[in-house]
Specification:
- It is a single chain.
- The chain has 431 residues and is mainly α.
- The protein has 3 domains: 80 residues, Fumarase/aspartase (N-terminal domain) (Fumarase C, Chain B, domain 1, Orthogonal Bundle); 216 residues, Fumarase C, Chain A, domain 2; 86 residues, Ribonucleotide Reductase Protein R1, domain 1.
- Strand 3, helix 8 and strand 4 form a beta-alpha-beta unit.
Length: 431
């Protein structure tokens, strides 16, 4: 079960204690701003700052009667403050508190997620550098193509993960907006200075324009970004799952002492964590769709988004944080089997050098590419169908001998040729 206790750091952001603390701080800051404007006595603002508090259980009890969470909160907070509580929430609407506090929570969550993304980056960099020249077969359509290195595979993930970091940094900025603009966003009963004051002290920027709420394209962008990050993790996990297949077995998730793979088959060592990541990514994508549905509201403000967000935003943040933690652990402790990678490269009997032969026929033999392709494919098909040695077939092909010497053909079967630009690729990532 994924809940706030699974990732306590993220769970703490979304628990009621933190939420109500944010609500209280917004109300206090608004009163302090009013005092600066001379709208309420400064002594009242001071008392509100000193006496303000809340009791969560009491809030729950009041909400049972009021059926309104903000009113319940204000009632309880007011009991602690006393006489000066008459100035609390003056000219404000519930969404001034709800949306501004949600922005702070989403910003806090984004910062924690960014820490986890950067930790994944470190682990991927370590693996990329360790296996920079570890040869393995590259696959396209699931079929053997040409040699690559496992380090290059990690470099591919590093680049994508860093794009996700940039995406989340951008989404954090988009949601780091508050609004204290009143019932329909016109500041009719509250001065715009109060919004500016509150947002400044919370590390937010005031929304350029709002209705009673912040518009939900912001939240949809944030949630879509979480879904993209989850989909990247899904992609990485799927590749590890494929590479752990018994008939491939080039990598394997760590199998700890005492771990069991199957209730029926004692020999099983399954990629269960990667499978979990792939499965949970579907939840993130579903939640992102719900966030997109929240963008269109009646006259830019109804309440259909609220109930949805109370589920999907905390859940997605907690879920992605959990996924990042467990997948980072998978990569860090991954078993990599270079010998199996070499074995798998030999399965196709050197067929993976076919392109190099074709290019040599064009370059040195001076024939058309289509003709070169036909000559190489003829031998490749024979090698595949008859389990013959591709290199030997080429060396005995009299038509190819018209264009390439035996030495030129043999020189094409060189793994180093395929990884000669690995350093260049790594430098692009500052690795």
């Amino acid at each position: 079960m994924i809940d706030r206790y699974t990732t306590p750091e993220m769970g703490k952001i979304w628990d009621d204690e933190n939420k109500y603390s944010k609500w209280m701080e917004i109300e206090i800051l608004a009163c302090e701003a009013m005092a600066e404007l001379g709208q309420i006595p400064k002594e009242a603002a001071r008392q509100i700052r000193e006496k303000a508090d809340f009791d969560i259980e009491k809030i729950y009890q009041v909400e049972e009667v009021t059926k309104h969470d903000v009113i319940a909160f204000l009632t309880v907070m007011g009991e602690y403050v006393g006489e000066a509580s008459k100035y609390i929430h003056y000219g404000m609407t519930s969404s001034d508190v709800l949306d501004t506090s949600l922005a702070v929570l989403m910003k806090e969550a984004a910062e924690l997620l960014l820490e986890s993304l950067k930790e994944l980056d470190k682990v991927l960099v370590e693996k990329a550098q360790e296996h920079k020249y570890t040869l393995m077969i590259g696959r396209t359509h699931g079929i053997h193509a040409e040699p690559v290195t496992f380090g290059l595979k990690m470099a591919l993930w590093i680049a994508e993960n860093r794009r996700n970091i940039a995406r989340l940094e951008a989404a954090r900025e988009v949601v780091s907006a508050g609004k204290i603009s009143g019932a329909v966003g016109t500041f009719a009963n509250i001065d715009p200075f109060i919004e500016e004051y509150v947002c400044k002290h919370l590390g937010l920027k005031p929304a350029e324009v709002s209705t009673q709420i912040l518009q939900r394209d912001r939240h949809a962008e944030f949630m879509s970004t979480l879904a993209i990050i989850g989909s990247s993790l899904d992609k990485f996990a799927l590749e590890l799952r494929n590479l752990q297949r018994t008939d491939i077995l080039e990598v394997e998730e760590e199998f700890s002492k005492g771990q069991k793979g199957s209730s029926a088959m004692p020999h099983k060592r399954n990629p269960i964590t990667s499978e979990r990541v792939s499965g949970l990514a579907r939840v993130l994508r579903g939640n992102a769709l719900a966030a997109l549905e929240n963008v269109a509201l009646w006259h830019e403000r109804d309440i259909t988004h609220s109930s949805v967000e109370r589920v999907i935003i905390p859940d997605s943040c907690i879920l992605l944080h959990y996924m990042l933690k467990i997948f980072t652990r998978v990569v860090k402790n991954l078993n990599v089997y270079p010998e199996n990678m070499k074995r798998n490269m030999r399965i196709t009997g050197k067929l993976t050098f076919s392109q190099k032969i074709m290019l040599e026929l064009v370059e040195k033999g001076g024939i058309k590419r289509e003709e070169a392709y036909a000559l190489v494919q003829r031998n490749a098909l024979k090698a595949w169908e008859e389990k013959a040695d591709f290199e030997e077939l080429l060396l005995s092909d009299q038509e190819i001998a018209k264009y390439l010497s035996n030495e030129a053909i043999k020189a094409c079967f060189d793994y180093d040729y395929h990884i000669k630009n690995v350093d260049t690729i790594f430098k692009r990532l500052d690795l």
